[in-house]
Backbone:
């Protein structure tokens, strides 16, 4: 890797960690000017920064306000880089994502959404407090591969089971996966409600989604 | 008399009935009908007392009173989204501190507290939103926590305002006869300990310091507050209500002996999803491992779910009252 490329990618990552929007925009533009592929700048720059943010969050150095603002910073860089991604490049997969009804906490979901978009997936973000039927409605409308559900309060997590049951009833045309996450979700809970996967954080979510997508790459549904 | 002194006059633990909406199921009333009626609050309080023989009278908390009153005074639709062009000074200028004796449902609530305090021979307890949580109802929560980093002066000014709102109301409710005042700051757990101290602890202390001298000052913060313990204590609360995630065994030795530890049966896994027999066992387990702490008061980690079976709640309340000699 050239020194200049290395500096730009590190600059993108550090700008995200430092919550510095001016720097992230500057490095995103510089990356494109240097001919660095937008996908590389996202994954090796912005996403690396978010991985560091997740680490700081796990170590109780960053808390939610810092994580949210780091996420905003990453978005600012993403906006510039996304415009340069090849227009007709096939997305790595389609994902419908949202926070289940009754819950307005959208921070974790936003981070997962950003990371998945950076990893090349086409994201349909329904936001927070999403009516349960809307997940399957959207998945059928856009022919999504995966539905990603988030919940941060225990009283709303049972809504996830409703979405899974709804998909079983209405989404039989082909295999679609449901993954779950959020502060009140455990692997045991995910298993109990019949989810296809669980991730504890955004980085794990990207790995999980890529693993699930291998099912289609291996010819699942064909 | 402090809460701890009151507790120590008993030959068993006291039990705090953290079950806000259960009275609606017992009476069949609708939420806002009760908010707006002193008489209906009285019926709810009686039904709760008859069913659970709690150590405190805990009516249906009007959790929306501060937000609803501020909304009607300011003309804003809450929560306000902070956009690029938001005029922060304009928001602050439209917010004025309500008069608890005149504005919104506050006078109804004060009349209710006075009636309840006079009608029962048990301490009256209520919960009021804290200034940080109220600020997150005025400003959309994600925008507000963004502003904690990006607009710290605005955040401090808004928190000074919400602190005054909460303080004025809390002074009036304790004058009306509320004995145990629990300030709930669920959203403040989003902050790091230093930010919690800077933005929340100092303001809670201001509120607690202004209360009637014989009011019992309790603080509840949801989530794992283990790392925030010094900040909770810095608020000046004489009782800390701790979420079920907090490991009482580990945290209890770190809490001063004159601060009451309140908690922390799990409202979901234990109260909602277990049988009465399992709940009795879990409650006894809690009593046993906290037996060396005279400053312990039995409660739930947070408000119970609205559909928690009544028999489950009875099992927890009855077992919580087991005499020291019987477990």
Residues:
């Amino acid at each position: 890797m050239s020194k200049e490329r290395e500096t730009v990618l590190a600059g993108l990552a550090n700008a995200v960690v430092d919550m510095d929007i001016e720097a992230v925009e500057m490095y995103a533009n510089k990356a494109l000017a240097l001919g660095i592929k937008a996908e590389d700048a996202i994954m090796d720059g912005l996403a690396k920064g978010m991985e560091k943010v997740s680490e700081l969050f796990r170590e109780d150095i960053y808390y939610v306000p810092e994580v949210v603002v780091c996420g905003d910073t990453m978005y600012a860089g993403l906006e510039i880089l996304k415009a340069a991604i090849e227009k007709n490049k096939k997305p790595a997969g389609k994902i419908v994502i949202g926070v289940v009804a009754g819950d307005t906490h959208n921070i974790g979901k936003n981070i997962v959404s950003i990371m998945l978009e950076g990893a090349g997936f086409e994201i349909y973000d329904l936001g927070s407090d999403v009516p349960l039927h809307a997940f399957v409605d959207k998945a059928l409308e856009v022919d999504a591969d995966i539905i990603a559900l988030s919940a941060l309060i225990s009283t709303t997590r049972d809504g996830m089971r409703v979405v899974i049951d709804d998909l079983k009833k209405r989404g039989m045309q082909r295999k679609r996966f449901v993954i779950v996450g959020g502060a009140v979700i455990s692997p045991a809970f995910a298993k109990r409600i019949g989810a296809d996967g669980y991730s504890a954080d955004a980085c794990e979510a990207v790995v999980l989604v890529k693993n699930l997508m291998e099912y289609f790459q291996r010819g699942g549904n064909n | 008399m402090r809460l701890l002194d009151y507790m120590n006059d008993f030959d068993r633990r006291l039990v705090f009935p953290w079950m806000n909406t259960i009275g609606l199921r017992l009476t069949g009333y609708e939420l806002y009908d009760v908010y707006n009626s002193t008489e209906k609050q009285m019926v709810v309080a009686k039904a709760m007392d008859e069913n659970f023989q709690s150590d405190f009278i805990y009516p249906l908390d009007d959790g929306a009173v501060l937000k609803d009153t501020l909304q009607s005074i300011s003309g804003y639709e809450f929560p306000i989204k902070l956009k690029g062009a938001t005029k922060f000074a304009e928001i602050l200028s439209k917010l004025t501190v309500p008069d608890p004796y005149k504005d919104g449902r506050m006078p109804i609530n004060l009349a209710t507290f006075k009636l309840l305090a006079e009608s029962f021979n048990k301490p009256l307890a209520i919960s009021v939103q804290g200034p940080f949580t109220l600020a997150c109802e005025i400003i959309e929560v994600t925008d507000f926590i963004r502003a904690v980093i990006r607009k710290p002066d605005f955040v401090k000014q808004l928190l000074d305002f919400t602190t005054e709102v909460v303080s004025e109301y809390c002074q009036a409710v304790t004058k009306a006869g509320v004995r145990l005042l629990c300030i709930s700051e669920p959203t403040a757990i989003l902050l790091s300990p230093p930010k919690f101290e800077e933005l929340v602890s100092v303001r809670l202390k201001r509120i607690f310091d202004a209360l009637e001298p014989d009011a019992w000052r309790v603080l509840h913060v949801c989530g794992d507050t283990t790392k925030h313990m010094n900040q909770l204590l810095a608020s000046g609360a004489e009782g800390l209500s701790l979420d079920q995630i907090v490991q009482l065994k580990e945290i209890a030795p770190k809490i001063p002996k004159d601060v009451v530890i309140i908690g922390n049966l799990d409202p979901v896994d234990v109260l909602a999803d277990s049988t009465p027999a399992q709940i009795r066992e879990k409650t006894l387990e809690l009593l046993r491992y906290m037996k060396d702490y005279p400053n312990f008061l039995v409660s739930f980690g947070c408000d119970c779910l609205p559909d928690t079976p009544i028999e489950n709640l009875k099992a927890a309340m009855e077992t919580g009252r087991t005499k020291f000699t019987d477990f």
The domain at 3-326 of chain B is CATH 3.20.20.210 (TIM Barrel).
